[in-house]
Amino acid sequence: MSLPPIRRIVTGHDSRGRAVVASDGPLQSVVEIKAIPGTVFHEVWSTAGSPACVGNGPDPADGPLMLPPPKQGTRLRFVDIPPDTKEFLAHGASKMQAVFSETGDANVSTVRRDSPHPLMHRTESIDYGVVIDGELTLILDEGEVALAPGSVVIQRGTNHAWANRSKRVCRMLFVLIDGAYDSVIAAALKLPMENEAR
């Protein structure tokens, strides 16, 4: 079963300041990740800076795919996540450089030999993730949570992965908000790296 395309309606203002529909139609940026076939990013919108500029500017979803939000900005996207395969779980860790390079930020991958899932990664952001269709499992360093339609995850810069243990694609809606780690958490995140270097 394939999921329906996303329809995006963008509003704006005419020369008299009246509200109008600026565009109505399919997304301009829909990108399948070649290293994980079936993983599709549907880029909806982003803002750069805060407060966000409210105007009739160009479509911010155009351009290359970038996983994290812009500095002091936000990003809105849907992601279709296919079922994990045995081959991916066994050998996926070796592909993570390629996977995250396709999403514009190879440095977010945190996968190691003992990681609970090949897609472990972390961004310095607050992410709201909503299951729209299908089932998914949120995997953390310690523990995991089964998710169904209507589940909402508030991801606070934590190391995580999304595992699809079902037999069909799961669609998630994500809103990513640029952030900065609290100094206590930032210090704690450096400790494991220093210990591993010894």
TrEMBL record:
Residues 120-175 form the Cupin type-2 domain. CDD domains: cupin_BLL6423-like. It comes from the Bacteria. This is Cupin. Gene3D superfamilies: 2.20.70.150, Jelly Rolls.
